[in-house]
Amino acid sequence: MTLLEHQGVPAEAPPVPTPPTGVAAWLRDLGLGIRLAAGGGREGWVRTALTAVGVGLGVALLLTAASAPHLLHERSQRSQARAESVAPGGPDAHARKSDTSVLRISAESEFRGRTVEGWLMRADGTHPVVPPGVARFPGADEMVVSPALKELLDSSEGSLLRERLPYRITGTIADSGLVSPGDLVYYAGSDTLAPADGGHRIAGYGDPGEGEEMPPVLIVLIIMICVVLLVPVAIFIVTAVRFGGDRRDRRLAALRLIGTDVRTTRRIAAGEAVFGALLGLLTGVVLFLVGRRFVGHIEMWGVSVFPSDLVPDLRLTALVVVAVPLTAMLVTLAALRSVVIEPLGVVRGGRDRRRRFWWRLLMPVAGLAVLGLTGKVDKSAPVDPYPIAGGAVLVLVGLALLLPWLVEACVNRLHGGPVPWQLATRRLRLSSGAASRAVSGITVAVAGAVALQMLFAAVGDEFNRMTGQDPSRAQFYTFSQKVTSEAAARTIKEFKATKGVEAVIGKVEVYVTRPGTYKDDEIQPTTSLIVGDCGTLRELARIDSCKDGDTFVVHPRNDKELSDWVDQTARKGKEVAISDTPGGKSMRWTLPADSPTVVARHDPLGEDSWGIMATTGAIDPSTLPGATTQSQIRVDESVEDVAEYVRNTAAGLDPAMRVSSVKSVARDEKYASVQRGLQVGATATLLLIAAAMLVAQLEQLRERKRLLSVLVAFGTRRSTLAWSVLWQTAVPVLIGLTVAVAGGLGLGATLITMLDKEVTDWWLFLPMTGAGAALILLVTLVSLPPLWRMMRPDGLRTE
Amino acid sequence: MIPAGSLLCADSLYKTYGRTPALDGASFSIHPGEVVAVLGPSGSGKSTLLHCLAGIVTPDRGTITYAGRELSAMPDAERSALRRTEFGFVFQFGQLVPELTCVENVALPLRLAGARRKDAERTARHWLERLEVEAVGAQRPGEVSGGQGQRVAVARALAASPKVIFADEPTGALDSLNGERVMQLLTEAARSANVAVVLVTHEARVAAYSDRDVTVRDGRTRDLEHAG
């Protein structure tokens, strides 16, 4: 056989491998992308690390949010466990005395704005019940305290509080007896506490009740807070998976050169993003676990949590674990649709393809429509959270979608100006998408916050009540059920001697009746007898002349009927009966015949007192059975810790004496805690956004390191470049904030209409907008040192 | 010692990056309108010498005198002003601002020096025309070829009427034909405007456009006059 003949016979060709298709091709390409990201050298790792840190921060925040249900449940459980068990006769009934029953009274106080929960307790028998977390019932003058209170009392900062709680510390309360690690709680033992002092008998602890229902308005607020705080986190994650995208695109061009097709290249890119997202997931879990260890030591706006309470909900965690890499993949594939990766380079298609407006408008409009169709929130029916949350998410995400179009439309109209402005606007024109992405988080956060502020303001009247109290006449008031001999006089005297106290309105009050026998269907005429010094009585009634020993009949203002009722008991020159219990043994006292009749006036608490008023010279307050003491105290607020001095004096007089602040507005506790929650969450979200903007800024600067060096080489002033960076950040932020304000006002107004309220203030967006602008300034300032460094001539070195 | 009539002169320059010495007693001088090629292998210290001469990097030791003024003693702001008004630069790559058009890139040094936008762009167009790239004036750097981009960079270097142009491997990223043309245009324009050119290169073909060669090896310089 000749060679020619041999040529005619086809040689056995090596088998051509069939490329995988479908899912197999996807897996192969994603895998290749992951391998490229993992083995991409220093550059690849820097990009992956940026994504991982960014995604990690977001994931850590999402896991924290996913822990909220468990956290709230555990806190509620512990709170209920330490509440007293309800006696058989109902919530107001006293338990029966037994070997295990305990007499107790609340001795709650406040120290430098923090609540100190306390109870004075006396065991009825030898085996008293103990609260959760307490190992041994405290003996007389002993107390068990929470670890945070112990720490405070042991510190120099707590020395004033130590004066108030002079009991010997015999133990600490375990976590099971506390709602949060920062709780200031104590249980003090007493051997003198009696029912007459206000002591309440309990049989045990643990309230199995369901707890109070949240009002629908608060539920809407909570839904909005979740949406407002979590949507920016999701947007942040989406932004983070695109960190270093430009550099990656160039690397992908090299893959095209060796023959990979466009689809494969995109899938490889998606694989790289998935790798970053998976590392981010891991970083997030590590950050969450590390942060969880230290969370017990952190307190923000009086909120602290036990690490053991931070357990993410399994379903929500699974959602995060699946959604994050999936989002990374989808976002990358979507982003690459506007990018043409050719073998010799990358062409950004987005520049020439103008963004369309109409479909971007669809989402926020759809959101508003969903909210509109939901109708008014019925105060008596349960709230369906899904349409509200869904509508709000659509509006907020829609705003983020509108932003790129708006930024592009605006920067395309910006011409001329000085060099920094020109550099900035041109840069924005070339990459308006990146600029929009960088500020989309803050846009959504500010829009949501504006809507929330409006909501809070609109529903505030339901939760913030005008008390009618006048804080300019007195700043504190006290109340005690304990009246011992000389107690009233002593109370007034000691408060007057307290550092920083300017005046004391102290009164001792008992009910007095008209003596006589009455039929069953007859109401025995009753009124109050108030004993105080002339200064006090002048604060309670319009008295022109007063000297010790005087007495007065005080009529309510503009109420003839009630005045007549007072006169039925307060008969001048006649006796009144004073007794501590109905039908009990009473004492008699004669109202002097020369007692003038005067009219009541509002006291600093906004309350009117009427009946009989007597100076201490006319009747000895220590002789009055069943009397209560109330003091209203005016202080010099410039004296540091004046409130603590007042409370210390009160505790010295009677540990169970209640000291409250005179406030013109009373806030609902649940409303206040929702607002506190918003503050904590908003801080975390804003910090995350700041971190995202900083990373994006640094990444952009890193990309332009060589160009910056060249610009500096031919004499560009640093200030020129700094201004250019500032404008580059400020222009999209300004557009973003405008969108945020418009969107936030729209969303807020819609939600307020749903709650059947009215917008109280359209200018509430100013603080949040200011905070957003401050954040930008901060990010720019922080990015200046790296900018200076990148302007060094090192960037010119090529060898 | 400063050679008579020299515009820019460096004497016994020392510069170290970390532990690596880049310049080890290098000296240099150039006269107005003169084209001097700085030759040497990779890592010999050519670029560092150029950066020191241009006032971008401060030498550890030694003196640099420009038009009778001690450059190394000037504060950063003064050196920046000098670079803006008296010096021009051409680098191998990555020097044009990608978001500005070619005209705006050429006008940039003039605008940084305080010229009005219209005046700066008129001058820029003149230089683009001289460098035979007026057609790409409205395009951005990413939309023009490498050779055109490099000519735009040369036009930018010349636009502010500098006294000295520093060119660091200006043809390093170009093919030979484009490289030759860029060098031809650069040296012709410089000579006609009496501008001195410090030309860092490792290609003898590029160095051929110079009046004089300076070789850098291990951070030291050696002067070579061209025979022709």
TrEMBL record, chain A:
Keyword Manganese: no
Major localization listed first in the record, in broad terms: membrane
Region (Disordered): 73-101
One Pfam family recorded for the sequence: FtsX
Keywords: Cell membrane, Membrane, Transmembrane, Transmembrane helix
Subcellular location: Cell membrane
Domain ABC3 transporter permease C-terminal residues, every copy: 224-338, 682-792
Membrane topology: Multi-pass membrane protein
Ranges that cross the membrane: 217-241, 273-294, 314-336, 357-374, 386-407, 434-456, 677-695, 733-755, 762-784
PANTHER family with a match to the protein in the record: BLL1001 PROTEIN, MEMBRANE COMPONENT OF PREDICTED ABC SUPERFAMILY METABOLITE UPTAKE TRANSPORTER
Protein name per its UniProtKB record: Membrane protein
Organism: Streptomyces gelaticus
Source lineage: Bacteria, Bacillati, Actinomycetota, Actinomycetes, Kitasatosporales
From TrEMBL, chain B:
InterPro entries for the chain: AAA+_ATPase (IPR003593), ABC_transporter-like_ATP-bd (IPR003439), ABC_transpr_LolD-like (IPR015854), MacB-like_ATP-bd (IPR017911), P-loop_NTPase (IPR027417)
Keywords, comma-separated and alphabetical: ATP-binding, Nucleotide-binding, Transport
SUPFAM superfamilies assigned to the protein according to its UniProt record, in alphabetical order: P-loop containing nucleoside triphosphate hydrolases
Annotated Gene3D superfamilies: P-loop containing nucleotide triphosphate hydrolases
Pfam families, sorted: ABC_tran (PF00005)
Domain ABC transporter: 8-227
Signal peptide location: none
GO MF terms held by the record: ATP binding
Superkingdom, natural source: Bacteria
CDD domains: ABC_MJ0796_LolCDE_FtsE
Xref: PANTHER family: ABC TRANSPORTER RELATED, IMPORT ATP-BINDING PROTEIN
Protein name: ABC transporter ATP-binding protein
Organism of origin: Streptomyces gelaticus
Upper classification of the organism: Bacteria, Bacillati, Actinomycetota, Actinomycetes, Kitasatosporales
